[in-house]
Design brief:
The complex is a heterodimer. In chain A, a hairpin with a 2-residue loop joins strand 4 and strand 5 (44-52). Chain A is 25% helix and 41% strand. By secondary structure, chain A is α+β, with helices and mostly antiparallel strands. By secondary structure, chain B is mainly α. In chain B, helix 3 crosses helix 5 and helix 5 (95-122) packs antiparallel against helix 6 (125-140). The radius of gyration of chain B is 18 Å and the shape is elongated. The chains are: A alpha+beta, B mainly alpha. At the A-B interface, strand 1, strand 5, helix 1 and helix 2 of A face helix 3, helix 5 and helix 6 of B.
Chain lengths: 110, 149
């Protein structure tokens, strides 16, 4: 069951392309919890799971996993990927060791 | 026309003893000279290559120049053609970068799965948090921190 959704925009030569991100509700499996997430990149949909010791941590680490994915992508490297406005970040946290990658509002928020 | 990744690997074969970031910079210079432009995501490619350098250089020395496959340090051929990039300047993301992205994701997810097996057996929240830091470092080409619990 999807519980959260965000749409980013990737500008390719002034042609906006929507990047859909969705997160599913935490589920329990084999002693841990996970949230499945997807990013609909222009070249294909990426699906993965963020795990935690309980449902709260699974949700938090899923957000960090998505943040790491966004900030490590070649789409971010072009500077043409954004949430509300270019250069302002995506509203996802990243693991502490990736804080130097944050831009805009993300740098202030996380 | 050979694809960009293939061309890059061929170029690298001539410099088997040089650090890979050096090879990338000189490849970029050559590319700029001959095509008057470089892929806009070259910085991402450089990040990847430094990641690959760190990952492969110690445990997997490159094959000497002149040998079949000399100078190679990664597997798989590129999916993006130089022709695509040159004839399609509006493309902000080269196929090479997308191929690189997919390769990195697979490698890092494999590492994460191994880490999670440890975390499941420990049942430790700290372990999961550290596994995510290790995953993030892997994705972004940073030094992967050791577990500390």
């Amino acid at each position: 069951m999807k519980i959260a959704h965000r749409t980013l925009t990737f500008n390719e030569n002034n042609k906006p392309i929507q990047i859909q991100i969705s997160i599913s509700a935490p589920l329990q499996t084999e002693g841990s919890w996970y949230c499945e997430w997807t990013i609909g990149w222009p070249h294909g949909v990426r699906t993965a799971r963020g795990y935690g010791v309980d449902s709260v941590q699974a949700l938090r680490l899923t957000l960090e996993m998505i943040g790491a994915e966004l900030y490590s992508s070649p789409y971010h490297a072009t500077g043409n990927l954004y949430f509300e406005k270019p250069g302002d970040g995506y509203g996802f946290p990243v693991p502490p060791n990736l804080h130097d990658l944050l831009i805009g509002q993300d740098k202030l928020s996380f | 026309m050979s694809n960009l990744a293939h061309d890059f690997k061929n170029f690298a074969r001539y410099f088997p003893s040089m650090p890979i970031h050096w090879v990338v910079l000189h490849y970029a210079k050559r590319h700029l000279k001959s095509h008057r432009r470089i892929p806009p995501d070259m910085a991402f490619m450089l990040t990847y290559v430094m990641w690959a350098d760190k990952k492969y250089s110690d445990s997997q020395p490159r094959i000497p120049a002149g040998s079949p496959g000399g100078g190679q340090w990664t597997s798989g051929d590129g999916g993006g053609s130089a022709g695509d990039i040159i004839s399609n300047p509006i493309s902000a993301i080269s196929n090479v970068s997308l191929e690189i992205m997919t390769t990195i994701e697979a490698e890092c997810e494999s590492q994460l799965e191994s880490d999670l097996q440890i975390c499941r057996s420990l049942g430790s929240a700290s372990c999961y948090a550290q596994a995510m830091q290790r995953y993030g470092a892997c994705l972004s080409g940073k030094i992967i921190p050791p577990f500390n619990f």
